[in-house]
Amino acid sequence: MGPFYVNADGTTLYENVFAWNRYANVLYLESPIGTGFSYSKKNVFYSDANDDQTLSQNYKALTDFFTNVQPQYKDRPFFIGAESYGGITAPMLADKIIQGINDGSFPNKNFQGMSIGNGYMDIPLIENTLVLWSEYHGRFSLDEWAAIKKDCCANGDVDNCDFYQHFKSATQLDFSPDDTACGKHFSSIIGKEVDPSLDPYNFYQDCYGGSAITYFDKKPRRRMQTQPSTAAVADPKNNPFARYPLGGNTADFINRDSTDNQFGYPCLQENYVTQYFNNEDNQKAWNIDSSFKKANRTFADCNDALYNKYKVKYTNQDTQFASIIKNNMNPNFTILVYNGDIDTVCNYLGDSKFIDKVYKAFQATKPKTAPTVSSRDRWIYRTMTAGWVQSYQLSNVKIDVLTVKGAGHLVPLSRPGPVYQMITNFMQHSPSYSETNMEVTPTPNPLLSTTTKGAAGGIFTYISCFATLFVISIFTYINAL
Questions:
Q1: For the segment 363-384, what is each residue's pLDDT rounded down to a tens digit?
Q2: H/E element holding 117?
Q3: Catalytic residue among 84, 391, 414, 473
């Protein structure tokens, strides 16, 4: 979602033409302290964290940003967003901000909404629906499914069966099946026996370990699912083949090393990013304090010590969503819950069921204005179905539940174009996620020279104009228009 990707050399960058900062200023908060380049100078290896502490850190950081760091933004519309475990921390932060706005203690009153991508909002629901998702994606045989119904569900009602009670966890982050007749059915989808070749973050992503990835010096081939009309093909923005010579050799555009259209980049990008951010010159350009380096700390995509000790307090966000709906005074407040539909870590079905639970809980309060639910309809990106969306109106809060077709856990990485359109429409409060009030086929800027330190420094300066820090878990984007 940021302005650049790191090349395979771990040194140079190329432009993300679908960067979210094309529409808004983006502030990235690495949270909790201990992730990425976020650390305590008193204890560089600090690794104790919990949900309440993370909320306090995020709220204080955002308050300081609007009050002291960039006070010129304090009256601009802003949204907060998060991904994955941010499905817990973002609603907590949104609830706290709304309380601060209502009592006058938060400096920016123009809070417009919250987005959550593949959120961990209800842990029991996420784990329960993983079983259903797995069956519907061919991971159980018919005989196994019949046995699961028999051993796990008293009345055979798998949609409401409590599989979660048969999942063991000391952390609420990693799970394994118990030794009951029911639990033994799930060794193939959770725990140590899961096939290591399956990417839990993207079920259809293949990363061929040990093979040399072949990179062609050409743009990846894009595949049309259906034959477009002649009129559609005539418009270059609707014709993915228009960028290639019609007489070209199709074999030149085939990626034989992965099932994605990014030449295996998602398989290897963590290595590139880690190398890039552990470069001493880059750390200086990003103003990383020297104490980080002196303590022999290195940048990593995950702080294992922090992860292993993290204390999960809130296994669902029922209370926080109820409080947001009750206390929000902004009639245009929107919550976007979006999911890549092939993620098994935080699957779309669990998040959909959670929002349905929020809706039913609000309905049970018998509000003066009855809640409404729209039909579930497809949304379009460049004439193609990009996913499906359904909207709930609960008092002053609109909740959009949206899927991104073919995307994994890291949705902006899997489907950058559709997600850029999605997030822009969200921030514009557009009536439809199919609106194209943005360039859907942007042209990359010419690459800057990377032969001198001066040129590389220019790239870093460009980054620092748009993003304060690299995103790890939760971010805030501030409308610049």
A1: 999 999 999 999 999 999 999 9
A2: strand 111-117
A3: 84
